[in-house]
Amino acid sequence: MQYCKPSVKDAAALAALPNAYIGAEKCQSCHPKQYTDWKMSDHFKAMQEPTDSAVLGNFNNTSLQADGVSSRFFKKEGKYIVNTQGEDGQNHDYTVKYAFGHYPLQQYLIEFPDGKMQVTRQSWDSRDKKWFQQYKGQKIHYRDWLHWTGNAQNWNTMCAECHSTNLKKNYDLEKDSYQTSYDLLTVSCEACHGPGEQHVKYINGKDYQSGNKQPNSLLLLAKNTKQLDQINACAPCHAVQSNVAADKIASTELLDNHIPAVPNTERFHADGQVNEEDYNYASFLQSKMFARGVQCSNCHNPHSGKLVLPGNLTCLQCHAKTFDEPSHHFHTINTAGAACVNCHAPGKNYMGNDLRHDHSFRVPRPDMSVTYATPNACNNCHQDKPAKWAADAVVKWYGPKRKYSYVEDLIPGSRIDNKSEPHLLRLLQDSTTPNIIKATALNYLGATPFPNGMSALMESLSSADAQIRYEALRSLQAYPKNNMNLGAIAAMLKDKVRAVRIASADLISSMGKNIQVPEEFQSAYQTAKAELEKNLLHQADFAHGNIGIADHYQRNGEFANAEKFYLRALKKDSLANLARLNLAVTYNLQGKNQDAIQVLQLAAKTDPKNDRAWYNLGLLYNEIKDNPNAAMAFEKAIQLNSQNSRLYYNYGLLLQQMSKAEKAAQVLEQGLKSFPQEESLHYALAYVYLQNSRPDKARTHVMFLKQVNPNNPDYQQLFSSLGIR
Fold first, then answer.
1. Cα 628 off chain centre by
2. What are the pLDDT digits (tens) for 622-635?
3. Please, how many CA atoms are within 13 Å of residue 296, restricted to the half-sphere of its CB?
4. Could you tell me whether strands 105-111 and 91-100 are parallel, antiparallel, or unpaired per DSSP bridges?
5. Where are the domains of the chain?
């Protein structure tokens, strides 16, 4: 492997040459140690034929009763059978096609028509030797997306890519079927190093024997691989991510083929600690380890997956011995409290019994738990104690001062309220903020139009980090399109990274089909739009993928296609309320308001706590002059603590129109408590007070408008009415 020094040119050469996957056995003769390590790894056992040696579960006519489902496990004619609830709600016998994983749990794949394979909810606990059920305590309806026969447990799209080598999903949109293929059943050498045919030809050829070194010998990931190249090679399976398209391009840039999730509150705690399954990538990029150049193989044997040294010794490769002493950790040596990972990489069980460690390697901050209710490592163990107890212990041991951490701005920034923007901007301006956190701040800036958000997003388009550029373009979708610098956005159509080009094309297409792209970028726009369409269609087997396709059609005025894909999304996931909300917009744009109201009523019924469903319903009722129902819907949204300033604005003006001036003022004042800088609320309050002969009350709000935006022509009449110059 000494000649295998990877580079971007290597990756391109590898793609250009005819090359094939040859299997791990061909690697064994030259790399016996690596091969032996691999045979002990989770990768080797990622997916196996259901042989007696591979299947760990007890299929000796055993049973499991859990969450209203009865299941039985037995063998018949040499095959492993699971009898459990099927997609029709009735129990059936299902033949195990493959064993999936091995430790600490093993799952089983069942083959269905149309090329689909599904992962059973019933799983084998390899540690405690017993059957258990995923999503313990949840009674999942057989038509639910989460049911084991549903989209959430579909092998082809949710699991397959990271359990086999060179997988091709091959989804057929029209038939809603798969012809999924792979070159090697499990995760082999070539899953990471690339196809080996050309490499073996070189090693066995005259060039190698004569010392004529071929450039890089056409393999990836050798000893001297750069930090980010190695991490990006692991990331596709160790990050929550979506594929850019079906066709992979030869690149060491992650966002050419995959779009990783940022650590926002959808899957993470507000401080960036992992909450839902994250697979480590987004956590590790937050860490000081990453900032100092540490890569996966510094701690993990890349072939066995095991730690390079047991326990704390892995950490002591770099850290001084004093960090492994009671004077640092204040716990008895060789106890759980003295283990580095329990304080700096706390674990959480996923999939029932699979303990995974947070790889952000942070210093515990129980003081943040006191202020913001975020978790901390101390109270993970000392669950009978309050966070204040842990925070006081930290002060006693280490003194009262804590070094600044980005979490001090990330947490308040994540709240998306009137106090968030300064914190998010500070994260972007601070050179010590990890890039993944800057990308997260940009993601939050797209949750609602902040006053200074657009300028921060536009400035971020010049970042050297592809994820920052991508998130900036995605978040610009939330801002008024008529105020954007189209030239700067169009320039991103020529970005070197595919995901960024796609985000640029998506943003420009959202400006309307009549948008005039500068001539110098028109060709790039057509190319990027084609990449965008491939990206959207690749996700069409997901509910959210269909929503993305429908949104694209809606923006371009293709309403029939938009409706088609929103309905496809709901067929795949009946709880995908975003599809209903956007479908209602599609109907409204066509003047089909009664259809839109019916869809929104169903959305509110499906998820009564969805404030956006009630708000949109209120807007529609208001549009058709049904004021009582509009007021009812707006009131529901307010009761759900909506963080939408327009809700208060629209509801306040509706109440004024209904001659309920006092209530109108109360609603608008309530809105200002959450959004004190929101000009529209000040404007509406001034209007309401003036309409009801309360110029004294109006003056405060008019003076605010005069101070923040004195030249706004819409405000001039207010200024004149109060004699303000």
1. 39
2. 999 999 999 999 99
3. 22
4. antiparallel
5. 47-178
